[in-house]
Inverse folding.
């Protein structure tokens, strides 16, 4: 369903489980960044009413997810750590050449956001299915569904604003790039690590 061309090994889930505070801190900040990205799209494309409505919903939902992760951490006696760079997102954003064309720039943002949501969804699935902790397993299974919905929303909007054939070619090229990048990963207690 997600179209990802590289599957996360279950060994990553073991690394994440052994570094729970680190993975939860990373996850919390990713939710903030996702909310910030949706708000940024609203600011930059405010004339696109349907897009603004949907990005508003996503921004609110992502901040709710941040709050949920943070409350889970507090409940377990953890403190939210410091935010760390997300080199995964940075590398994806550099895949597309810079453009001054507003539509192309929007498509690129939407495709990168779709891929980040798709990979998060896949990682949450791997984590939830390899977790003895029932509370965390259920928590990540529920979030997985939300990430899948966000993925389809971003991809649908990309296909709305540009010819589907062009968008799908960009999407497939991005998927190939991301799969190669993911082959080097899976060693860190980070959602995209």
């Amino acid at each position: 369903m997600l179209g990802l061309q590289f599957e996360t090994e279950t060994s990553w889930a073991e690394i994440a489980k052994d570094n729970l505070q680190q993975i939860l801190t990373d996850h919390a900040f990713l939710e903030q960044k996702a909310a910030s990205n949706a708000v940024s799209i609203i600011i930059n494309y405010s004339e696109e009413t349907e897009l603004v409505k949907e990005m508003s919903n996503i921004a609110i939902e992502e901040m709710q997810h941040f709050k949920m992760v943070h409350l889970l951490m507090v409940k377990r006696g953890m403190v939210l750590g410091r935010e760390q760079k997300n080199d995964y997102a940075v590398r994806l954003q550099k895949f597309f050449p810079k453009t001054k064309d507003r539509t192309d720039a929007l498509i690129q943002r939407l495709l990168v956001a779709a891929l980040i949501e798709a990979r998060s969804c896949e990682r949450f699935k791997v984590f939830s299915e390899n977790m003895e902790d029932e509370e965390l397993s259920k928590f990540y299974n529920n979030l997985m569904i939300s990430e899948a919905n966000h993925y389809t929303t971003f991809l649908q909007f990309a296909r709305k604003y540009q010819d589907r054939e062009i968008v799908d070619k960009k999407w497939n090229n991005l998927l190939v790039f991301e799969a190669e990048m993911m082959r080097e990963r899976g060693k860190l207690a980070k959602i995209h690590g």
Q: What stands out?
A: Residues 52 and 165 are 24 Å apart (CA to CA).
